[in-house]
Design brief:
Layout: E1 2-7, H1 10-16, H2 20-27, E2 32-37, E3 50-51, E4 61-62, H3 64-78, E5 83-87, H4 96-103, E6 107-112, H5 120-126, E7 129-131, H6 142-153, E8 186-187, E9 190-191, H7 201-219, H8 221-226, E10 229-235, H9 240-251, E11 256-259, H10 263-267, E12 270-271, E13 276-282, H11 292-295, E14 299-300, E15 304-310, H12 316-324, E16 328-335, H13 343-358
Parallel strand pairs: 1-2, 1-6, 5-6, 5-7, 10-11, 10-13, 12-14, 13-15, 15-16
Antiparallel strand pairs: 3-4, 8-9
Helix pairs in contact: 3-5, 4-6, 4-13, 9-13
The chain binds adenine.
Length: about 350
């Protein structure tokens, strides 16, 4: 992945991109970080790139033409259609979902402003995305660009070692990470929680999930309000299960995946609340399948949102209507090839659901 960074301080980018994990990724050719000095594209003899603001006021404004020329050069290097991200405090704050979305691009052009900002007209003409790294004002966009490069690069294959995979991050669940411990077992009189020494994988997972909830409630209650328990139900031929599990795995670390071909499950009462999110994966149906009403007779929602994923040309209307009549709120249906689904299809489906969760739209 290529990052073209348009800046007045190329050394700042060069230095930071030469060390640690990002430095290693650059050396290995997994990513390229190319600073482009906007001053090299100045229109004046004295290499000026800023001027006084029309209408008066404090500070200087970066002129449009040098920025435009620098963007044009960056596009010549990495492609005309490359997204141009302007780092500015006047934007939505960067989230893990946005990071993953940007990581799907082959290249990014990152534009760093200075002084009071950049002439609005060149922003209107070139910028595709506005990104802030937090609700505070920095002296320029370079630190923002470096934060973005670091977070996005973690998703580029080969940047992290196998042990540090960015496949699923706690924040994608709208939950903070649980606490971590290593040796010694007792340090300064503080013992490692006993459950972690039990060797019982299920108990450890439950404890970690509980700790994530406690921590998020205490430190980031705003995240918890966006968090939902993912409940996946699948039916149709057995290969559908892999697609259901892949989708669930991209949405949460602690969701459930249930096989609604099974009569025992169909018979069991299954009530969901408005804090749940139902993902229904419908594969190719066998000839002897009961209809939706029979299959879901014991399933009920309470304003529970649901998404439908359909493979093999399955028809969504019957299932969607049936669930709507049982207290579920239809959010959308996606036809996809489930046998097996491509990693890209699963990623993009999960991303669109997470965006909705993040915006509080569900
Ligand atoms: N430039 C100045 N402040 C910034 C911020 N908070 N995020 C991104 N770029 C910036």
């Amino acid at each position: 992945m290529n990052f073209e960074v348009l800046t007045l301080f190329p050394d700042m980018i060069r230095q930071a991109a030469g060390t640690s994990v990002i430095g290693r990724a650059v050396k290995n050719g997994r990513i390229a970080v190319d600073p482009i000095n906007i001053r090299d594209y100045s229109c004046s003899r004295h290499m000026r790139v800023d001027d006084y603001p029309y209408g008066g006021g404090a500070g200087m404004v970066m002129e449009p033409e040098p920025v435009f020329r620098a963007v044009t050069e960056a596009k010549r290097r990495v492609g005309e259609d490359t997204r141009v991200v302007y780092l500015t405090p006047q934007a939505e704050v960067l989230t893990q979902t946005k990071v993953e979305e940007l990581a799907g691009e082959p290249s990014l052009i990152l534009l760093c402003g200075h002084y009071e900002g950049i002439d609005e007209r060149v922003l209107e003409e070139t910028v595709t995305d506005y990104v802030s790294i937090g609700d505070y004002v920095l002296t320029g966009g370079e630190l923002g660009a470096l934060v973005l490069i670091d977070a996005v690069s973690r998703f580029v294959p080969g940047v992290l070692g196998n042990d540090e995979s960015a496949d699923f991050e706690s924040l994608q669940d709208n939950l903070l990470e649980y606490p971590h411990y290593t040796r010694p077992e007792i340090w300064h009189g503080r013992a490692v929680p006993e459950v972690l020494l039990s060797g019982d994988h299920g108990k450890v997972e439950d404890w970690r999930h509980g700790q994530s909830l406690i921590r998020t409630k205490a430190r980031r209650p705003d995240l918890l309000r966006k968090s939902r328990r993912i409940r996946t139900i699948w039916f149709g031929d057995p290969e559908t299960e892999a697609a259901a599990a892949a989708l669930t795995g991209k949405l949460t670390r602690c969701g459930t995946v249930e096989n609604y071909n099974r009569k025992t499950l169909q018979k069991r009462r299954n009530s969901m609340s408005d804090r749940d999110l139902l993902i229904l994966v419908e594969g190719r149906s066998g000839a002897d399948d009961p209809d939706a009403a029979a299959r879901f007779r014991n399933l009920s929602g309470n304003g529970t949102p649901f998404f439908l994923f359909l493979g093999g040309g399955a028809d969504d209307r019957c299932t969607a209507d049936c669930l709507q009549s049982k207290g579920f709120c239809f959010q959308g249906a996606v036809q996809m090839d489930l046998y097996p689904p491509s990693e890209e299809a699963v990623r993009s489906a999960a991303l669109s659901i997470r965006k909705k969760l993040e915006r509080g739209e569900l």
